[in-house]
Write a structure and sequence with these properties.
The structure holds two protein chains of two kinds. Chain A is mostly helical. Chain A contains 13 helices and four strands. The radius of gyration of chain A is 42 Å and the shape is elongated. By secondary structure, chain B is α+β, with helices and mostly antiparallel strands. Chain B has one domain (about 5-115): Winged helix-like DNA-binding domain superfamily/Winged helix DNA-binding domain (Arc Repressor Mutant, subunit A), CATH 1.10.10. Chain B has four helices and three strands; from the N terminus they run H-E-H-H-E-E-H. Chain B has helices at about 1-25, 30-40, 50-60, 85-114; strands at about 25, 65-70, 75-80. In chain B, a hairpin with a 5-residue loop joins strand 2 and strand 3 (about 75-80). In chain B, about 25% of the residues are buried. The chains are: A mainly alpha, B alpha+beta.
């Protein structure tokens, strides 16, 4: 503690040098004045008195110097002096200096880059607990790794006992547009449980619930929002309409795209088929009728469920 | 010179602390005079050597300084003992007495042996 305090004061002193020197000067002057006064009072003559005081003190500059020796961190001061000297030397040999700096820069840069890659690829543990228990599962066709079909995945998940849990994963590019700036992002689609399987805790919000992994359960993701709307006065009918509207919009968009695709693919296929046609008006009509009905039902049933949610329960969801 | 100066610095600190304890707040010149008088003018040392010792004691927190005015209206820097200084004085006094006692015993026993 004592040492620390002393070191702290020394450090401060390094920066207040001028002020401290001033104060020391004042102190020594007052010392001399007091001494001279004493001398005069003791009967010394006015010429002798100041000389005697100065001699007894041992010289102003000598005293200052010995005080300065005890002040300021001498090691640091001499270090700075050495540093300045080194810089001066380097400046005098620019060729040598630049060669040395360049060599060091290249060496450090290359080393850092290589080590960064090696570290990330080989040394660094994966950033979640028990990474040695995480495996990728593939299906095999003719000895080649192949993607797993969704139904196979569901069967595996249900029937296998070798894994604590299984999640499905697929990646793709998506466009993310926010305030008019569309951007291509790499993203992954996973079944619910992606985070819990890896043991990654969420900082904020909640993970997807198991039922949110099932088609037609989009409302589950929006329970909170629906609860909020209902709490703010939206009636069951309005919520129902909201969900239906969205579902039908998706379905009709699918229909339009589907018909467009059918027409295009059909035409292409027609050119290579002989004797039969790929465009079957009856089938198209059937699809055009069945699909909206199916979409309506697929939206209406979950929508009713969503609308029946107690707002208080829904708000507590998060 | 070096060795004697070291001893001087060590004992000087003790003398300064003791002086401040018996005299209360005092300026550098006053401390120097007091030490000179108490030692019976045996210590013929420059007053200037006192100032590094004062600085060191202040850095260690045993004394504190403050500018004030002397009896005859002169500005002077006054030093006074802190609580840590008082404790340090007790400790150093005890150590000093112990050391001198040992040395004294050592010297007298040598005398008897020869």
């Amino acid at each position: 503690m004592k040492l620390l305090r002393s070191a702290g004061l020394r450090w401060c002193n390094l920066f207040q040098k001028a002020q401290l020197d001033c104060e020391l000067q004042d102190e020594l002057m007052s010392h001399l004045e007091l001494h001279i006064e004493d001398n005069l009072r003791a009967g010394m003559n006015p010429e002798e008195a100041p000389r005697n005081a100065l001699v007894k003190l041992g010289g102003i500059e000598q005293t200052k110097e010995s005080v300065r020796d005890h002040r300021g961190a001498p090691t640091l001061e001499s270090f700075l002096r050495q540093l300045r000297f080194a810089l001066r030397l380097l400046r005098r040999n620019p060729a040598f200096t630049s060669a040395a700096v360049l060599t060091l820069a290249l060496g450090i840069g290359a080393n850092t880059a290589i080590f960064t890659v090696v570290y990330a690829a080989l040394l660094a543990p994966l950033p979640y607990p028990n990474p040695d228990q995480v495996v990728m599962v593939w299906s095999k066709i003719n000895g080649h790794d192949n993607s797993v079909s969704p139904n196979d995945f569901l069967d595996w998940k249900r029937q296998s006992s070798a894994f604590q849990d299984l999640i499905a994963m697929s990646s793709g590019r998506f466009s993310l547009s926010s305030s008019g700036h569309p951007e291509v992002i790499q993203a992954r689609i996973t079944s619910p449980g992606f985070f819990s399987v890896q043991g990654i805790p969420l900082f904020l919000g909640r993970d997807f619930l198991p039922e949110e992994g099932t088609v037609g359960n989009e409302h589950a993701q929006r329970t909170h929002e629906i609860g909020l709307r209902m709490a703010l006065g939206a009636g069951q009918r309005q919520v129902l309409l909201l969900v239906l509207q969205q579902g039908m919009l998706l379905a009709s968009a699918g229909l339009v795209l589907g018909f467009g695709g059918t027409y295009f693919v059909g035409h292409t296929m027609n050119s290579i088929l002989y004797g039969i046609t790929a465009i079957d008006p009856l089938a198209i009509c059937l699809v055009a009728v069945v699909l909206p009905v199916a979409a309506f039902l697929a939206c209406y049933i979950p929508a009713r469920r969503a609308a029946r949610v107690d707002p208080m329960v829904a708000l507590r969801y998060e | 010179m070096g060795e004697r100066a070291d001893v001087w610095q060590g004992t000087l600190a003790l003398m300064v602390l003791k002086t401040l304890e018996s005299m209360g707040a005092l300026h550098g010149y006053g401390i120097a005079r007091r030490i000179e008088q108490t030692s019976g003018d045996l210590l013929a040392v420059n007053y200037g050597t006192l100032y590094p010792a004062l600085l060191k004691l202040e850095q260690e927190g045993y004394i504190a300084s403050e500018w004030g005015t002397s009896d005859n209206n002169r500005k002077a820097k006054y030093y006074k003992l802190t609580r840590a200084g008082r404790k340090q004085l007790e400790e150093e006094t005890r150590e000093w007495e112990q050391t001198t006692a040992i040395v004294a015993r050592f010297l007298t026993s040598k005398e008897q042996a020869s």
